[in-house]
Design brief:
By secondary structure, the protein is an alpha/beta fold. Helices cover 38% and strands 19% of the residues. The protein has five helices and eight strands, in the order αββββαββαβαβα. This is STAS/SEC14 domain-containing protein.
């Protein structure tokens, strides 16, 4: 069983990297950074890392990773989760996470298992991307994420979804 899980994780990681290599050639037309929107004025805190940025709002968090990064639990996500948890004074169960995928990067999808093993939670997870590679990456993440992943083609749709309270708590 262990061998099966390790093999599956390895194959998924390879597939995810292939998708990301292909998506590097895709122009992210229409994708907009949160800092170039009127939403930015409502940002309570901006945290800048070498690998990307996190924007904390009253009702949600938006992340934007840098092009070409390989995002993993050990090297990036754990630090982000700790910083976000400290800001909200929460385990994340009341946090809606929006991934604004304006750049192409790799994410170790299996690291969602480490997220949950560390007793962190998230109320909902939204992905904003406009290309097929982004959508396929979301499908791979879904193999390891315990809740629904909502996919949006623009940032405003995702934020409106959160603000209208359309998120079902499971």
């Amino acid at each position: 069983m262990f061998f099966y899980i390790v093999s599956l994780t390895f194959l998924i990681t390879i597939w995810s990297n292939i998708i990301n290599l292909v998506s590097h050639s895709v122009y992210f037309y229409g994708m907009i950074s949160i800092v170039n929107t009127e939403l930015y004025k409502d940002c309570l805190k901006e945290i800048n890392y070498s690998f990307g940025n996190v924007f904390i709002f009253k009702e949600f968090v938006i992340s934007q990773f840098c092009r070409g990064e390989v995002i993993s639990w050990e090297n990036q996500i754990k630090l982000m989760v700790e910083d976000i948890g400290a800001f909200y004074n929460s385990d994340g169960s009341d946090v809606v996470y929006i991934s604004n995928r304006i750049n192409s990067y790799s994410l170790v999808a299996a690291d969602w298992l480490k997220f949950y093993k560390s007793n962190y939670k998230v109320k909902a997870y939204c992905v904003v991307s406009q290309n097929k590679a982004g959508y396929l990456n979301s499908m791979i993440e879904k193999l390891f994420f315990k809740k629904e992943i909502r996919h949006f083609s623009n940032l405003y749709e995702a934020v409106n979804y959160v603000k209208q309270g359309l998120i079902e708590i499971s």
